[in-house]
Amino acid sequence: MKAPRGTQDLLPGVTEKWQFVEEKLMEISRNYNYKEIRTPIFEHTELFQRGVGDTTDIVQKEMYTFVDKGDRSLTLRPEGTASVVRSFVEHKLFGSPTQPTKLFYIGPMFRYERPQQGRMRQFVQFGVEALGSADPAIDAEVIGLAMEAYQSLGLKSLKLVINSLGDQTSRESHRQALVDHFSPYKDELCVDCQSRLTKNPLRILDCKKDRDHPAMNTAPSILEYLNEESEKYFIQVQKYLESMNIPYTVDKNLVRGLDYYNHTAFEIMSDAEGFGAITTLSGGGRYNGLVQDLGGPETPGIGFAMSIERLLMALEKENIQLPIKENLDCFVIAMGEEENLLAVKMIKKLREQGIQVDKDYQMKKMKAQFKVADRLNSKFVLVIGETELENNQITIKNMNTGDQVTIDTEQTVDYIKQAIQGE
Ligand code: HAM
């Protein structure tokens, strides 16, 4: 049996990298004062239909939807924003005196996509959402957090692109312009785009099939349709980014694949060599109508998400080694029953002091046990042989220097603690 297509097992050797990266992301979130939220992995299908948008690829083609035994239509979450907003409304977090509500999450998401490098059917997203502020400074904060997350891990080949999708009025005039622009080519567009033309013409701009149609390049850009207020907002976000020394480029074609966006939209790409077709590391933007669409009071929001899979891919492409501890503090070698009884007693004491210890559980010979200690890269080997047992002593070998001492068992824990601290 194999793991389903588009999923992967993370085995020891790799999970340490995930732990390191996830810990770093949590640390940065804490520095920015974002608090963790954990929502269910499945939700009512309707949440994503209403939240992400009925005409998006995600909802139309990529959802893992099933009917449970109680006849409810449920869906494995394809993204985190809709769930976070649902939870924000359900628990009336908008009523909390400290606003905006700044949340982060890390967890698996599911999309039925064609798997390739950097595109999985189950992937883990880290994301943040800031709800309750329409200050352009928070747009810059969210973008800054995303950039810092990558930079703090050593990534350099990063490109930030931003755009504005404008407010409702700007979007409506842009929508009309898109309809006028694409209508003459209707018959040349794919079936999906033909229906998008009436339902949601903005979606045509990120169609994978019609990407090369000549009408794509000449399509009216949203930036030309921004009203004064939207334009002012966008300029303000850029000023904040400049003030924070975050380089960016404006890409008027950036529309994002989810329906809830307005005003700021952004993506961070990697331009490291060797990246395949997929270079987008993360994406996000503002979604001022979403809370209301999901039954809450009018509340502005902005956020972004990245997958850990793509982050790790970027680290690999830039040859960045994470500082992961690969050795063991102590390995205890004992031969004979009495010796082993003393060994387990000592191991327990050492572990209680936070020292990392292991022993042989395969009844190997002394020499073979030394080999295991070597393979595990143990800093110290503690030997309890016949003589040691008789004298109530333990022999400690420093595997780096080869130095060896024999000391009383009572002093062992302190000795090891000091030796490790002194390193
Ligand atoms: P998204 O652009 O659909 O936005 O996904 C965000 C990120 O999730 C992508 O940039 C990528 O890193 C990762 N990702 C998406 N699909 C896959 C996949 N199949 N395999 C691996 N990684 C993937 C959202 O999901 C929005 N909820 C982001 C957001 C938060 N906007 C506002 N708040």
UniProtKB/TrEMBL annotation:
Homodimer. This is Histidine--tRNA ligase. It comes from the Bacteria. It holds the Pfam family tRNA-synt_His. One of its GO terms (molecular function) is ATP binding. Residues 1-323 form the Aminoacyl-transfer RNA synthetases class-II family profile domain. It catalyses: tRNA(His) + L-histidine + ATP = L-histidyl-tRNA(His) + AMP + diphosphate + H(+). One of its GO terms (biological process) is histidyl-tRNA aminoacylation. Its main location: cytoplasm. Keywords: Aminoacyl-tRNA synthetase, ATP-binding, Cytoplasm, Ligase, Nucleotide-binding, Protein biosynthesis. L-histidine binds at residues 79-81, 111, 125, 129, 256, 260-261. GO terms for cellular component: cytoplasm. NCBIfam families: hisS. It is found in: Cytoplasm. InterPro entries: aa-tRNA-synth_II, aa-tRNA-synth_II/BPL/LPL, Anticodon-bd, Anticodon-bd_dom_sf, His-tRNA-ligase, HisRS-like_core, HisRS/HisZ, HisRS_anticodon. Its EC number is 6.1.1.21. Belongs to the class-II aminoacyl-tRNA synthetase family. The lineage of its organism: Bacteria, Bacillati, Bacillota, Bacilli, Bacillales.
